[in-house]
Amino acid sequence: TERNARSTTSRTHIHKTRCAQSAQEQQPQEQAPPQEPQRIRELHPNITKHQEQSKSPLQKLFLITDFYRDYYDYSQELGGCPILNVGVDSKNQSDSLLSQVRYVITKTQNNIAKLIEWGKIDGEIKPSVDATLFAKNLYSRIEGAIFMTYTMDDKSYLLEAMNEIDELIKNNIQL
User: Fold this and answer.
1) CA–CA separation, 64 and 141 (whole Å)
2) Minimum mean pLDDT among 3-17, 46-60, 101-115: which range?
3) CA–CA distance, 108 with 119 (Å, rounded to integer)
4) Which residue from 110, 111, 116, 105 is spatially nearest to 140, judged by alpha carbons?
5) CB-based burial of residue 32 (10 Å sphere; 0-12 exposed, 13-18 middle, 19+ buried)?
6) Cα separation of 130 and 162, whole Å?
7) Which domain holds residue 53?
8) What's the whole-number average pLDDT of the chain?
9) Are 99 and 35 within 8 A, CB to CB?
């Protein structure tokens, strides 16, 4: 039975590895990383650190929305949302900066999609979920809410969007 347990564990590991590789192949490929502006570099470690509160891929998705609930106050110290600021400003002014922002957005969306794929493997997320599409939708909602929060100087846009994303996770992708 110990031999069978090791064999099952090995097969499970191989299956998870293959599924993760398959998910990566379906993701938009990240180009070689351009040098990210300092403010953008400061953002990602904080989100990652916040997600370390759980090992569950599904819970890590909820921790993303949890992080962004306080993002308005947090990003004030950064001078606003670096992705929005640099992305919008660079669109017609600097192809180099724009490529850096696009790289970060692609990397972020790919990381969300990987969480979804891992959640499928772990039996937390419905197998039918299109990880890439959901990741793009989630990230677009977050950035849109950040834009509205800053433009209107009203945190409720961000809070309501995070509540809606949590409901989407619970109702549309969670097993």
Assistant:
1) 12
2) 3-17
3) 17
4) 105
5) exposed
6) 20
7) 2-173
8) 82
9) no
Q: Which residues fall within 8 angstroms of residue 14, CB to CB, at 6 or more apart?
A: none
- Identify the CATH number of the domain in which residue 97 sits: 1.10.357.10
**Tens of pLDDT along 123-172?**
999 999 999 999 999 999 999 999 999 999 999 999 999 999 999 999 99
Number of domains in the chain: 1
Q: Which two tokens stand for residue 127?
A: 């197998």
For residue 114, the tally of other CB atoms under 10 A from its CB is 18
Please enumerate in sequence order all residues whose Cβ is within 8 A of that of 105, keeping only pairs 6 or more positions apart, or say none: 83, 87, 139
Surface-to-core class of residue 72, CB atoms within 10 Å of its CB (0-12 exposed, 13-18 middle, 19+ buried): buried
What pTM was estimated for this model as a whole?
0.75
pLDDT value of position 16: 47
* pLDDT tens digit sequence for 98-110: 888 898 899 999 9
Compute how many other C-beta atoms are within 10 angstroms of the C-beta atom of residue 65: 21
Q: With beta carbons less than 8 A apart as the criterion, state whether 138 and 147 touch.
A: no
The CA R_g of the chain, rounded to the nearest whole Å, is 18
